[in-house]
Amino acid sequence: MKLPPSFTRRRWLGRSGALLAAAAAHPLAAVAQARPELRVGFQKSASLFVLQKSAGSLEKRLAPLGVAVKWVEFPAGPQLLEGLNVGAIDVGYVGEAPPIFAQAAGAQFVYIGYDPAAPQAEALVVPKDSPLRSVAELKGRKVALNKGSNVHYLLVRLLQKHGLSYADIQPVFLPPADARAAFERGAIDAWAIWDPFLAAVEKQAGARQLADGRGVVNNYLFYLAERGYAQRHPQVIQALFEDLGEQGRWVRANLRQAAERIAPLQGLDVEVVELSLRRYPLGVQPLTPAIAAEQQKIADTFFELKLLPRPLRILDALPGAATG
């Protein structure tokens, strides 16, 4: 499914900027009175959100608006999107695939931003003593992954690249902690996983990469908001963007120091966190037509594999899209 020709960059920038531009038209008191809280869904693997939570930077930025911050932790992106779907959170940060599955399930959200491509931040790994040396050797093997996560698409594309189909393997759907345990006891043959879990199993267990995402996937990370919340509280979304940008710039300029701050919060070694941060080029930006088109390709692929019940239009989950 292709984006319509009318979806020009000028039109997109007008749409994506609408939420932020509208902030100036809303009195501060109205935001606070309407909803004095921003509920942020985060994963412990989301290093920037973990840093923000620890530093209290978002709370300080939202204080003039009278808006409090509540942090709600989830084990992975699909579970986080379930939380958004049932109204448990207002914003979240996930990989490429979770928003697609959530949109298929009827979740009402909008893409409010993305971080640059991070293809090295996800990979297919095997134990260090595994006889497997190529993705092509995975036929009939058990491969663990978190269903509906960014690595779901990575696995599909890697299999295609090496002449296999998704039906050629035995997918084992496990969240990261359970997959790590299965990996270490030899219950699975390979594991599709993202950072910092990837860096951790490489550094701590000597896991060996069969392939990462380079040349196969982009692995964009997306910031999402519940549609109604984004429309009602553009000033809050603006403040979130500003804080993400400021914290992201600090991390990029101070990788080692950032890793030292984040490591104890994630329960990981500093070297593990630093490696993970090096593979994530943080830098929140509004979506562009090109990024939306890439998401559409992923949605179309999942539909063709019958992993989605119906075709999707990514345009329907963008700011300014008609609903109802």
How would you characterize the overall build of this protein?
This protein has about 325 residues and is of the alpha/beta class. The protein folds into 2 domains: about 210 residues, Periplasmic binding protein-like II (D-Maltodextrin-Binding Protein, domain 2); about 90 residues, 3-Layer(aba) Sandwich (D-Maltodextrin-Binding Protein, domain 2), CATH 3.40.190. It has 15 helices and 10 strands. The strands form 2 sheets. The chain has a 5-stranded mixed sheet, with helices on both faces. A 5-stranded mixed sheet has the order 7-6-8-5-9, sandwiched between helices. Helix 4 packs across helix 12 and helix 6 packs parallel to helix 7. The two termini are about 20 Å apart. It comes from Rubrivivax gelatinosus (Rhodocyclus gelatinosus).
Identify the overall geometry. Answer: globular
Distance between the termini: 21 Å
CATH fold-level label of the largest domain: D-Maltodextrin-Binding Protein, domain 2
The biggest beta sheet, please?
5 strands, mixed
Helix tally? 15
Q: Output the radius of gyration.
A: 20 Å
Question: Helicity, in percent?
Answer: 40-55%
The largest beta-sheet arranges its strands as 2-1-3-10-4
The poorly predicted ranges are: 1-34
Architecture (CATH level 2) name of the largest domain? 3-Layer(aba) Sandwich
Mean pLDDT: 88
